[in-house]
Request: fold
Amino acid sequence: MSDLAIAPVLVPLVVGVVLLLFREGNLRWRRGLGLLSVAVQVLLAMALLDATLDGAILTHALGNWPAPYGIVLVADRLAAWMLLITALVALFALWHACQGLDAQGRHFHVLFQLQLFGLNGAFLTGDLFNLFVFFEVLLLASYGLALHGGGAARTLANLHYVVINLAGSALFLIAAGLLYGLFGTLNMAHLALLMAQTPEANLGPVRTAVLLLFGVFALKAALLPLHLWLPATYGRASAPVAALFAIMTKVGAYAILRIATLMLGAAAPGFTGLYQDWLLPLALVTLLAGMVGALGARRLTDQAAYLVIASVGTLLIAFGLGGRDAIAAGLYYLPHSTFAAAALFLLTDRIAQGRGAFGDRFEPAPDIPSAPLVGALFFLCAVLLAGLPPFSGFIGKFLLLRASLAHPAWPWVLGVVLTSGLLGILALARSGSLLFFRSAAVPGVVAVGNRPVTLGPAIGLLMLTLILTFGAGTWLEVTTAIADQLLEPGLYIQAVLAEG
Reply:
């Protein structure tokens, strides 16, 4: 049993409670504590990744109650990878928020830490019921964060987000209840063992429960046609919140991958590939829909939100293809798309501040302050998100296309990925042209925003994509090792149940 596996959950929870108790305290003090907490989470995630890269799977049974009876946290390579991506995005998003946006609500830092508590818990839990609990925690925190700053448009978008996720939570409970009624456990390792021995008479109910879970995870991931909540929610959220939310859809993708590899593999022939036949075509359509949405967007934040949907489509194409190389390609693409989308959200805030009343709408306006630097950063974001060489987006898509050649659907994958790439180039070229090249003479003086927005956080996120680019060989080795471990579910089952 390892205490390291529980530390990423405890740190944001404890700091969140402390911030709640001292919510009326000095803002500078709260900012420092929040940033310190996230920095510690980055270090913890790095330590966990280092500890699991040799193949070790760390477990922590809460209260020393052994699995499958107690609550168990499991840190394998995939969980550590997701924790590291989450902590890095959170660090730069919080840095950006500390430039003034966090002062718009006294509970911002509390909610931010609780959001991280829910995210980290979702990646570490080895139990379906606690996956539901951590989903609810991160959703509750996200409802508050999405409303941060107020405004009618933000409130309306959040109302839809709440209603849709309440429906998803109800379906999750029904699916978990079905599985518990059939197997008497919700420990994922134990479920994987029992599902492999499912009698013929129970195949139907179990398949129903698994497909319900798939629907819930698809909703969280914004997989078409369950993606309609995302553009309004992300597009109306404040910039640092939207940047943090770039990792939220990846929680759904993570859950889809975890369940597919652990419970629906070759050891459970009655359920092998149960939702893979749905996943690949839906992912292809999601990618296209995201890029078409980006092409038709009228504001830069809306365009960034649609690009998040497109990135989810690309990621789930990789998971839908299955196999070691495709999963490794998807896991390499995952941090790239998260960092690049988060950087674009933060950059959008600077652009909107510089354009005053014109905001981030796609219409000619006077030049913004520091236009050459901001424009250069936007150009880099565009190249990354469109998947152009030589950066990590291109490498990720190239790895994905290469892996798809072994799949019967490879012509569809190649056609959709390349077409969507072209649409992405057109969409980002249009927005860049309107924002930076088609300046307009406006009578009078355009009042720019009075909130200082430095470019440091956005540059930091873009630097992470460059680290992914220049260290591509190393990171691909890491993601391949993660894929190898996922395709050996017996290792996970043995590590969890051996504690019992």
Observations:
- The radius of gyration is 22 Å.
- The chain has a mean pLDDT of 90.
- DSSP finds 20 helices and two strands in the chain.
